[in-house]
Structure formats: C-alpha cells, structure tokens
Specification:
By secondary structure, this protein is α/β, with parallel strands linked by helices. It has 7 helices and 12 strands. Bound molecules: NADP nicotinamide-adenine-dinucleotide phosphate (NAP).
Length: 250
C-alpha cells in the first residue's frame, strides 16, 4: 500500500496527478476554494484553508498522510511556504510539482518585472492593457487610472480594481485564434502575464508576438529552499511510487 498522498492543488497538473494516482493510491486533493465551480480531480477532495502551516501539519497527522505533493500554481507562494514548514513539522516527504516557466523566443518583446506592483508601474499610460494575472491580484493595479484594462478571469472580480476596467469572464485552455481575436477586437497595446508556464494559457504569448505587442512578464517567486522539484506529472507519479518503496523498507 502506498501512503496516503496529499496533493495541494488548484492547477491542471494537480488534477492530472490525482487522476494518475487514483485509485491505486489513496489521494486527497486540497483546493483553496477560490473558484466557485472548480473542476474536481479523482479521489478525495477537501476544500478550504488549513489555518496556516500548523493547521496543515495537524491535518497531515490526523489523516495519516505519508507524502505531500505541492502542485499549486507557481505564484501561490504562501501555501508552498506553509507546505514546506508543515511537512518538516510532520516529518513527511514533500515534492513540489512546477511546470517549467516560459522562455521568450524570436520576435518576442518581453519586459520582465519582479512583482504585480512593478507590473502596474510598467503599464502606466500604456493605453489598452490586457491583464491576465487573475482577479486576486487586481488590487496592485487599482491606482492605475491612466490606462484602460481588459481583465480576464474565471469569476467576476471584486474591488479594489482599476477604475477603467472591462471584464472578460473565461477559463482556459485558450486557442491561438481566440487570443488573436481578443487582441484585435479590444485594440490591445500591451499584455500583462505571470510566468505561469504550461500550454493552456501560452497562445496569448504567440498572439502578442505576431501582433508585435509588448508583454510585461511577472517573474516567479522561488520554490522554498530544500524542496525537491518535479517538472512533469509523470515525474511526480514516479516520486510518489518511490515513497512506497521507502516506507516499505524503512
Ligand atoms: P496563496 O496566496 O499561496 O495561499 C493563501 C492561503 O490560501 C493559504 O495560506 C491557505 O490558507 C489557502 N490555500 C491556498 N492554496 C490552497 C490549497 N491548495 N488548499 C488549501 N488551502 C489553500 O494562494 P493563492 O495564490 O491565493 O492561490 C490559491 C489557489 O489557487 C491555489 O491552490 C493555487 O494553486 C490556485 N491558483 C493560483 C493562481 C495564482 O496565480 N496565484 C493561479 C491559478 C490557480 P491557510 O493558511 O488557511 O491554509
């Protein structure tokens, strides 16, 4: 029997990982509860915060979790930090599953910034801005009154948000044709994105390249120190199975 695996989710990869491990492995996927109608993975699912790192460590002990895979979004920094602390406290192995970041190609006009706050400064007076950094980070742009924002998000944003804003409710994956149409129909001057990586939202970068539109790219926060990283779901599955070998021999 493999140990009970806790997957910290909220990403396509987390869902694919749960689907790959279940039912051979007991899997619980944890979601923050931000999205009103999330796509649910196979296996058990729990929704809502743990109450910090201590709460997560307690949950790990109470539910006999033998391994944790942090498959959260590369920009979900707090939960990843909490996972590192909780796993250390509860003495369980932890793996971070992180899809590779995007790399600029020929013809790309990227301006890399370190945070959403810096991205907001970069688009001041920039005309029509296509903002794809998610509704939770809109507060960083709330004071920018000299640009018009087209905000794309899964659920409707709540204030604070920029005064000149239009909302496009949509959820990836997106297509190149669809992204071309968004840029053209809304006469976009600049695109803002996090370096989320992955194929589902990459077509906007190709569409921006084709249209000669500059892209403000927010760099990723680092993975907590000492946490091993897998970049593919297959590697994370292999890691989970290796935990069985270790717990059987240990
Ligand atoms: P965050 O800032 O790192 O976490 C804030 C708090 O939300 C955490 O301290 C934790 O509360 C709770 N939380 C976050 N992820 C959780 C999970 N998977 N299960 C249970 N509790 C969780 O997170 P965030 O950036 O708001 O992202 C929230 C979720 O949306 C994540 O699961 C992430 O994978 C997904 N997501 C995020 C982004 C993004 O750009 N940030 C994009 C797409 C999807 P407690 O301290 O109470 O445990």
């Amino acid at each position: 029997m493999l140990p009970h695996v806790l997957i910290l989710g909220g990403t396509t990869e987390a869902r694919r990982l749960a689907d790959a491990l279940h039912p051979r492995v007991r899997v619980t996927s944890s979601l923050a509860g931000r999205v009103a109608a999330p796509r649910l993975p196979a296996g058990e699912v729990r929704i809502g915060g743990f109450g910090g790192a201590d709460g997560m460590a307690e949950w790990i002990r109470e539910h006999a979790v033998g391994a944790v895979i942090d498959a959260t979004h590369p920009f979900a920094e707090t939960i990843s930090f909490n996972a590192a602390r909780a796993a250390a406290t509860a003495h369980v192995p932890l793996l971070a599953l992180r899809r590779p970041g995007w790399v600029p190609g020929e013809g790309d006009d990227w301006r890399e910034v370190g945070s959403l706050v810096e991205a907001a400064e970069a688009v001041r007076g920039a005309g029509r801005v296509f903002l794809t950094t998610g509704r939770m980070g809109l507060a960083a742009f709330a004071h920018v009154d000299d640009a018009h924002f087209l905000v794309r998000s899964v659920d409707a944003p709540e204030p604070p948000f920029p005064p000149r804003m239009e909302v496009l409710l949509d959820r990836g994956p997106f297509t190149l044709d669809g992204e071309r149409a968004v840029l053209a129909d809304h006469a976009i001057d600049v695109l803002v994105t996090k370096d989320s990586g992955g194929a589902a939202t990459a077509p906007k970068l190709a569409a921006a390249r084709e249209a000669g539109i500059p892209v403000v790219v927010v760099r990723r926060p680092p993975v907590p120190e000492g946490v091993p990283v897998a970049t593919t779901v297959d590697d994370a599955v292999t890691w989970a199975h290796a935990q069985r070998a270790q717990s059987a021999s240990g």
